[in-house]
Amino acid sequence: MNRSIQPAQEGQAVRIGLGLAAVTAVISGVSLFVNASAVRSFGDPALFTTLKNGVAAILLLALAVPFSRSAWRPARGHWRGLLAIGIVGGGIPFILFFTGLAAASAPGAAVIQKTLFAWVAILAIVFLRERLGGLQIAAVAVLLVSQLLIQPPGGVRWGSGETMILAATGLWAIEVVVAKRVLVGVPPLIAGVARMGIGLIVLVGYLWMTGGFAGMAHLGADQVAWVLLTGCLLTAYVASWYAALQRAPASAVTAILTLGLPITAGLQLVSNGQVPTPDAVVGYGAGLGAVALLGWLALRAPRTQRADASA
User: Fold this and answer.
1) What residues contact residue 176 under an 8 Å CB cut-off, 6+ apart?
2) What is the rounded (10 degree) CA torsion for 289, 121, 195, 82?
3) How sure is the predictor about 109, in pLDDT bands with cuts at 50, 70 and 90?
4) CA separation (Å) from 86 to 77, 137, 158, 210?
5) Nearest to residue 301, comparing CAs of 139, 133, 121?
6) What's the pLDDT score for residue 2?
7) CA–CA separation, 29 vs 267, rounded Å?
8) Which residues have a Cβ under 8 Å from the Cβ of 239 and sit 6 or more positions away?
9) Closest C-alpha to 53, from 170, 212, 192
């Protein structure tokens, strides 16, 4: 009897997880648009990232305070995972990414970062034992092609900046795998606190060593407002992202995040009349179809398990 109930409960969890992933994609699309304006206003991306992440860490901690003491006392293995999430997800890759941006070509940075879902899919197969059939692999391939249509790789040249951005993307992919395991026994908000809090310590150390805190003396009211706004968006992103990752397959959740790109494009169209190229429109359509297929297959998997258990 329990064997038939468990897949049904899992199916409900997957539906909620995919819905939360869609919410995260919307937040991501808005955040990309807002952060572009914030960075231009701020000037120093390292200081901006540290302050924004600090706001998110404080807000996530405030949201997680009501949890019981037992929730704040994860098993020893989970503590190691939380530490890894903070360093590998919330600290080092941010340093690599914004340092790489200063040296990388804009097309190169965009193309490399958009391969995150593909790396997660590979790692999920190896370390999370997620089963990707022919349709899933085809959908991932179409999604990858769609990203190249949205941001053509023309003009990409490889250098130290691109290498750092690739390393950051790889670390974020590893974070997804580690977080997926940790979230089995740790509430998403507490995992988010670890990601942003431990990561903040790494970022503060980096700024201290590079003298980046000097820019704080020149912050204006507009820049403080940008930090607070983007920090709130980051808080919502991390909370919904980890909640989605806890419930649904990592490969599907990460693929759904790409839906944030057309949302950003829509905001750019409304804001400054920036019309996507025909290739980009085709890419958006192909990406939407691939994500829809991956989501449907993720929903179908528990039903298949339930049918197998009943057989």
Assistant:
1) 120, 123, 124, 245, 250, 254
2) 140
3) low
4) 15, 30, 29, 21
5) 133
6) 40
7) 9
8) 60, 63, 188, 189, 192
9) 192
Q: Which domain holds residue 303?
A: 2-310
Amino acid symbol at 130: E
The model carries a pTM of 0.86
Token pair 């019309």: residue: 275
- Is the CA virtual torsion 225, 230, 231, 235 positive or negative? positive
What are the start-end ranges of the H helices in the chain? 2-42, 45-64, 76-84, 92-103, 106-113, 116-127, 134-150, 160-182, 188-210, 221-247, 250-256, 260-272, 278-310
* Domains of the chain: total: 1
Q: Within its chain, how far is the Cα of 121 from the centroid? A: 14
pLDDT, tens digit (0-9, with 9 covering 90-100), for 40-70: 777 778 888 899 999 999 999 999 888 766 6
